[in-house]
Hints:
By secondary structure, the chain is of the alpha+beta class. Strands 19, 20, 24, 25, 26, 27, 30, 31, 32 and 33 form a 10-stranded mixed sheet that branches. Strands 34-39-40-41-48-43-44-45 form an 8-stranded antiparallel sheet, sandwiched between helices. It is globular. The chain binds beta-D-glucopyranose.
Amino acid sequence: MFDGNRRLQVMRAFVFLFLGSAGVVYGAEGPAAPTDLRCEYLSNPMGADVQKPRFSWVLHHTERAQMQTAYQILIAGSADGLARDGGDVWDSRKVDSSDSIQVVYAGKSLSSGKTYYWKVRYWDTAGNASPYSAAAQFEMGLLSRDEWKGQWIEGNLLRKEIDLQGRIVRARAYVTALGYYELRINGEKVGRNVLDPAFTTYPKRVLYTTYDVTRRLRSGRNAFGAMLGGGWATLGRRFFDPEVGPYYKAPALLLQVNIEFEDGKTVSVVSDGSWKAAQGPIVSDSVYDGEVYDARREQPGWDQPGFDDSTWSAAQTVEGSKGVLSAQMMPPIRVVDSMAPRSIASPRPGVFVFDMGQNMSGWVQLRVQGPAGTQVTLRFTELVYPDGMINRENLGEAKSRNIYTLKGQGEETYEPRFTYHGFRYVEVTGFPGTPSLDSLRGRVVHTAVGAAGSFVASKQILNDIQRLIHWSQLTNLFSIPTDCDQRNERQGWMGDAQATAEEAMMNFDMAAFYTNFIRDIRDAQFPDGSLPDTVPRKYGGVPGDLGWQTAYPLLCWYMWQQYGDRRILEENYDALKKYVAFLRSHAQDNVYRLHWEGDWVELAHTPGDYIGDVWYYYDVSLFSKMAQILGKSDEAASYGQLAGQVKDALNRTFFDAHTDNYANGTQTANAMALFLDLVPKEHREAVQRRLTDDIVYGHNTHLTTGFIGVKFLMPLLTSLGRSDLAYDLAVQTTYPSWGYMVERGATTLWELWQDKAGPAMNSHDHIMFGSVGAWFYNALGGINLGPESVGYQRIRIAPQIVEDLHWASASVETIRGTVSSSWSHSPGVITLDVTVPVSSDAQVVVPPEAQMTDVVIREGDRVVWENGRYVSGDPGVKAATQDGKKVVFQVGSGSYSFRLTGSE
Ligand code: BGC
């Protein structure tokens, strides 16, 4: 027999272990030391270039219903000073405030390159102080352009030797490239980043990474080496308009290593014309095409001191980028995992096809032994033909292959540096002998965002879809949110980005990533205020379709909602205003009519001018709300008024009061209008019926939307009280549905609802349909922001307990700490376990079955609801009210186990 409760317990234990609540040390009673200290969303960032960084921490307490009533931050210039409770840089003193997120630095002015040490304590509701947190640190980057002394230099391999005399106490490398770099010091790679720096609009902004290289350097002779690849900086010609690519003819390096000696002396090693350059083993590299590597051209010892570089030429200094140099303040791209192939087949003599068992992003490491000059070719695909040969049809123009030429010296291992692929299968040809499973090792590569959420439910198809979302989301994070990872796109398509951001923020720690991307968007804005379809701009229309441009206000808005980020709103306010002005200039009679994509990859066509106009309304009303939040009430009112006019014009133009349809009455058309509350009250019910009838009777409980419409549809159905129908769509396994993809063997989400494998557009790893992931957390898990609340200060836990589901469990590491919700349902009994972080409170909605009577609800051992009434006395539970059949509890922080019983 299925034992729901036990299963739930095991699962919860797993979720806890997995996400951890790292290092909480409780004293006997009372407030525990804060954990998870962040500076600008990052733990212990190196090279922060924000003058007034913001801090956040997570609170813990042994008792329920606890608030932070005050905090104290200490920041010191030395670890020892901080250990002695010194705050020579900033001692906030005791600040009466419940803010534990977005606390803005207010100490002495922060200096370039310096490391600061900080800790925090808090006072609870009763005024008891917690112990101080463990020490955290942050380090400033180079705060002004004048501090960069080096020059951009070109070359494939670059090297420089230098004598350093004395004991080195501190050394920092600041490094970036137009393209990609691998930095080496004294024979070893520096750091674990790959495909660094991030893809930006290089002429406007280049991001540098800071490394602590103190231990890499020694008194005496030292060698610095860099390998460069073209990355997105030189990619072009064959793919993009001349206007947007290639940005540069060849990759270039900019480096500065600041070294401090014990006696106070400082030395900087910088990239300049004194460096030497040579051609290395990488014969060619391209993000799309892959790498060609000839191991016979390796120059052993080139990155070590004492290497004879007399045949090398002087490095060429170039103008490089005149743009801003900014610190790369987000998680880097890394090899996050290694995977053994699942199987090998040999569909033809000499052709070996490895199956990784999972569509992934990255590359493989090759292990091979054979005569010098042997050429092994690896080709990467998502698909194979029925005969087992690889199917490259959906890769477009991307060659997606690596060619390795052996040097012939024992076992050789090779992995590429300056390319990546989206693939499940790897075809190996030219292999000397017969490869084994050990010959390849999969390398999973993407921006290394941390996990934030988990969602599991008793219905397996949901867990399968969640797994696909996970993979598709991660494999589409490459310093920007990309559309796909395999063909010659992999671009920051803004529509895909906005559609999936909420899902991404529930599943992963995305705050720093989107902070960076929003700045990328601002960099890409045109003088008239409009935005491209892709950021950085490479592909797509100018201006972009509104469903794509709208990523700008929407991502800002989600940052505000999820993380309480007011600064994002402040910093982008003027640029957003310009954007709205652009929209307005194209909205004669308050109707915006420029459109291209409309609802993309839809099954029933919805007119693009209608969709564009709905976005126009959405953007203007969001902008009005932002003005309100920033205290600009006049502008809030005038944009609010404009939104009203746009809404009226939209209803006049696109609503048919006779048929109760918007535009042509597709699911997308009616769902967007309902979601945004555009529908005149007296027609609401009728439009709802149009929508649900179209799903149930018109399409036998299937979707007809593209990825734009579906993002609205699922949460809308829940808000209409039709989670049952949303659920039926979510677990549907016949075409078109997410489950159809799972049943057809997908391991990542497809670009199209259809199962296609031909040359036409059909990536097998797109994240854009993954928006349903947010609905898993919000509706099935029940985790929501409270009404009018941001950053999970007020939470609403309202799981949608649908007939077919026995249990579901969701947990999110929010900016304020863990929020979790796990429920189970068996005849006559509903259990709901929730966790609310300290300093937050929650509405917890416990829904009885429709026909239940004599409802009793217990929390732990205590009765908290009986005879239709709240029973007080349970610690942390403050009140309960009835809302229809549902019982809504008000609770403070802590963990609660509700158990509802009743007769049927
Ligand atoms: C991309 C999409 C994108 C669309 C818009 C496609 O080629 O892969 O994800 O949003 O174009 O035009």
